[in-house]
Request: fold
Amino acid sequence: RYRALPSPSAQLRFFGLQKELVDDFRIRLTQVMKEESRCPLGTRYCAILNAVNYISTILRDWGDNVFFLQLQQAVVSLGDQEVLGSLEMTEVGRLASLEGSLFDGLLSLLDRLKGDMLGRLLHFLMRDTAEKAQPYCQERWLSIPPPQDHSAMSLSSSACPMMLCVRDRLLNLHQVLSVSLFQLAWQGLAEKLDNFIYQEVILTNHFSDGGAAQLQFDMTRNLFPLFGHYCRRPENFFKHVKEACIILCLNVGSAILLKDLLKRSELETRDWEDAGDPSPESALNELGVFCLAPCDVLILLNLKASLPGI
Reply:
């Protein structure tokens, strides 16, 4: 359509029309989205999100297309006021140096809409999951017997509603969202779940050795594998929970030594290497703890019922 037009100025006028039509479509999608926003997991809402993502992807591809790069140079050389009139000097400079594209303004609006829609979807999804997780949050972790008292460990019954909810929602989203959007969705859910379980399950309870072992089993053998269908190492998306389980499952001797080291590091200012002791960070790294800060680890150690106060 562009190449049949006789001159760059005519092509630029057609570009203005196309840009206006795409923006009208974006506005219409926004209107329909608001009507469907009560059910963000519904087919229509997800279809709108797919459409927004698709248009955004196409415009990014066009921005790198040789024809549109040449048209971009024509905009700057001709000083087309319809395109340049609303732009600041820095934006004009980006167009001239090919750092930006003719579609940057539209892309910004589309990306904002996509971000808002994805955020609403994740909020609804996490609210549903948190509701199902309430029995798990109230589990009596302190009274769970040691693992050797069980013939074989199994998933906590209180965790079943939460696990089923996560599984079903992931399967549904996998079917209705495009590949790139689904990847953003499951990673966003994993991040929110990691924070929720760390804050609402772990930090609000005390754990017997059996309770810590049960929590680790529920997470590593049941929750993480739900996301293992979509990536190789799902535990990397649950860093707080994974590392908290490591600390809670330490044997008493190791936990006492670690707690003593961390408490002395809080009270003393010293060069740990010269003193011959490992630094708190290196000691934690040896255990596989890289995300949690020493102060967070101290809090977790105080949640171990088997650890004497020191």
